[in-house]
Amino acid sequence: MGTTRIGADIGGTFTDVAAVDSEGRLYIGKRLTTHGAEHEGVIQAVRDTGVDLSAPDTILAHGTTLVINALLERKGAKVALVTTEGFADLLDIGRGNRSEIFTLRFRREGPLVPREMRFEIAERTYGDDTVTCVPTDGELDRIADRLRSAGAEAVAVSFLNSYLNPANELHVAAYLAQALGVPVTASASLSRQWREYERFTTGTANAYIAPVFDRYLQQLIGGIAEDGFKGEFVVLDSSGGAMAVDTAKRFPVRAVESGPVGGVIGARTLAGTLDIDNLVTLDIGGTTAKSALVERGEYATTDLYWIGGEKRGFPLQVSTVDIIEISVGGGSIASIDATGGLQVGPHSAGSKPGPVCYGLGGTRPTLTDANLYCGRIDKDHFAGNFTLDVEGARRAIEGLAAEAGMSPERLALGILRLANMRVASTVRRQTLERGYDPRSFTLLASGGAGPLHACEVAAEVGIDRVLIPRFPGHYSALGMLGANLRLDRTEVVLGGLDELDPAYVRDILGTIAKELTSELTFKGAEDPAGIFFQYALAIRFRGQEHALWIAAPASGLDVPDDLAAQLRASFEEEYVRRYGHLDKMSKLETVELKVVAERVLPPVDISYARIEEGERTEHEALWGGGESVTVAVIARSTLKAGDEFEGPAVIHEIGSTTSVPPRARVKVLEGDAILIDVSKVR
């Protein structure tokens, strides 16, 4: 008997739930996202699955857009910053780069903490980690009084050089938490990396969102408990794992990309099952399109995530799966700009009112309306119980076409074409612009709208193979079913590679492992022996700004005596693979060391029951230059391993539709994934 696992993913338009019971049976739930009360959509979607929640070993993994939305929309708590004397203006100073050099009135978005909510304190830790000034209790009492008078609902404590020695910072944070009774974040508890601006913005963002996220989790956990849930609740971590609830409440900023990560976890698992080395993912939902790489069985991560974009936003120094995202989704609104040109997005109709064809009050045509008008969606099979308003979509397309002075057919195809080109640019950024040949990758499409556009996006980029997993509309939720508890920690280890002392590395690894082990406790899984570790070092040529992460040559936390020599060989091999050349005369230096700890949760074995039936039908659709062609309309549940056929076709299933263009060749693989050859589509 297995464990019941539930994955719940909140998107901009839909909230998806996938559940697998102890017998391996799969249950699916889908609801429109209830903005402002996101927990209600999750509770309803869980109810829709009908899965038994009463088993005490049930695990519910949850990914949400709440954190990033609150940061983007500035809907967090009234937050204060306590910092080293002389550094209160650091959030305003930021970085000296100007991303738009020809924009005379260029301004970045303001800090989350206004100047009057920043408080300085006498403390100092030198760059050699020596503490030379410790705040007195009297000073802390005065700061606490000022914070109380200012009405601070949360506090961030960020000191200069605390990444080297966090003693002062942790002491002040603990003192203020006890004195004020509000969430207090010490920046060093989130990041032990250099660059004080990035560490300060990360600490303030975590404090800013903490009360909102805590309140949301209480509402959600309380709601599912009323429905009989007695199991464990975990939150997806942006780095590709999951956090226990207590950890998520203390470090909510780590969940900034927790929703899309589920799909990347699922993609890595599927790539291993099908023995595919290189995947690029394409997840198109109702609001955004997201892309990530899975190379040689691993997804790439980054230690810097920008809220609001790199040009005008602010950075978070947290580990996240390297996902590129743009504002193109099924709800993206089509419009005519001041020059008479067609635009798709960035504004979205969201879940309310949604696309015109939803019949919920939308009046402006969206990408979904264009797909319906062009026959890429079967009106009788869309997102479960939805009945689409075909006439409403037609009127909206015709109205915009009249405004643009073109035929409705040309406009609708133009909307699809423009959206495909924008999405293709995202896939190129993940592959071509990073030195990868797109032709060596397979494009895995997920999300409600991903399979609708994947074939044409792949053809645009130069990718020949498109992979459609089962239930792509619920793929992020399905991926969450395979998430393990996972945390990482990065420390600065700056020095020449040749001088790297293995004993020094062993000491650092031991300290970090002890800290991470204490965070990965879980009911029924408290044994430290159940945690697996791996580590890597960031290495660069001396004088360079950027480094390559090189995995440890040994398994676990073992440190070989010839560590430096093995790291050098691995670095040189990876550098040549990435850049095609190598300078053997320059010296190498280490920059940082990262440790990843993972506690494997009970696995799931999904039985993909054929829960949707239907006969093949036909209808007319628009392709290419606007010609009408007859397409086969196929229920995916009728397909079986070994089936092959050629497009055009529309393959529908719960939560998503796959659009197969003319000349594309479909093959159903073992396990029911669909592989589409688009080499003849261009």
Description:
The chain is an alpha+beta fold and 682 residues long. Among the domains are: 5-66 and 220-255, ATPase, nucleotide binding domain (Nucleotidyltransferase, domain 5, 2-Layer Sandwich), CATH 3.30.420.40; 78-182, no CATH class; 485-599, Dna Ligase, domain 1, CATH 3.30.1490. 30% of the residues lie in helices and 27% in strands. It has 16 helices and 35 strands. Strands 13, 14, 15, 20, 23, 24, 31, 34 and 35 form a 9-stranded mixed sheet that branches. A 6-stranded mixed sheet has the order 3-2-1-4-11-12, with helices on both faces. Strand 13 (278-284) and strand 14 (289-295) form a beta hairpin. Helix 10 packs across helix 12 (408-430). The mean pLDDT is 89.
Question: Keywords, please?
Answer:
682 residues, alpha+beta, Nucleotidyltransferase, domain 5, Dna Ligase, domain 1, 9-stranded mixed sheet, 6-stranded mixed sheet, 16 helices, globular
